[in-house]
UniProtKB/TrEMBL annotation:
Pfam families: FeS_assembly_P, Zn_ribbon_PaaD
Domain MIP18 family-like: 5-69
Protein name stated in the entry: Phenylacetate-CoA oxygenase subunit PaaJ
Species whose genome carries this gene: Mycolicibacterium hodleri
The organism's place on the tree of life at top rank: Bacteria
InterPro entries with a match to the protein in the record: Fe-S_Maturation_MIP18, FSCA_dom_sf, MIP18-like, PaaD-like, Zn_ribbon_PaaD
Annotated ranges, domain PaaD zinc beta ribbon: 115-158
SUPFAM superfamilies noted in UniProt: Fe-S cluster assembly (FSCA) domain-like (SSF117916)
């Protein structure tokens, strides 16, 4: 786990896979294979192949000869899994962390006709006077925003 925990996200290299909440487990199976379990941030995430390769490289470089990286989809990843350290690192690099994800409990989903905009703090000045300028950012998991107070643009990781 110590070695795997050093691997960073290829799209947001300020975050380790632990910070992002993607690294789920490292264990040995009955045959002695080191099995690393990861969960994608969303279905079809293009960074998963690089994450797997980076984990295999880090572990084999550290002397582990038989390594398997498994992807699990259940439970699905949630932006709530980003650690406090990860949220701090995002802010330090000018990226707003996501708010709490909407948890579905299996019951009815209330129909609302308006979308309540989340309160987004500017990672530069801390103001909440911000606006989303595009739902699509540099990666599929981010949106573009602008601070009305300091006029700086910034990315924000979406809630999932």
């Amino acid at each position: 786990m110590e070695v795997a925990a050093t691997v960073t996200d290829p799209e947001m290299p300020m975050l380790t896979l632990v910070d992002l909440g993607v690294l789920r487990d490292v264990d040995r199976d009955a045959e002695g294979t080191l099995v690393v379990t990861i969960t994608p941030t969303y279905s079809g995430c293009p960074a998963m192949a690089t994450m797997r390769a980076d984990l295999e490289y880090a572990l084999t470089t550290a002397g582990f000869t038989d390594v398997a990286v498994h992807t699990v989809l259940t439970p699905p990843w949630s932006s709530d899994w980003i650690t406090e350290a990860g949220r701090r690192k995002l802010a330090e690099h000018g990226i707003a962390a996501p708010g709490a994800a909407r948890v579905l409990d299996g019951g009815p989903i209330a129909l609302t006709l308006t979308v309540r905009a989340p309160v987004v703090h500017c990672p530069q000045c801390g103001s909440v006077d911000t606006e989303r300028t595009s739902e699509f950012g540099g990666t599929a998991c981010k949106a573009l925003h602008r601070c009305r107070s300091c006029s700086e643009p910034f990315d924000r990781v979406k809630e999932i």
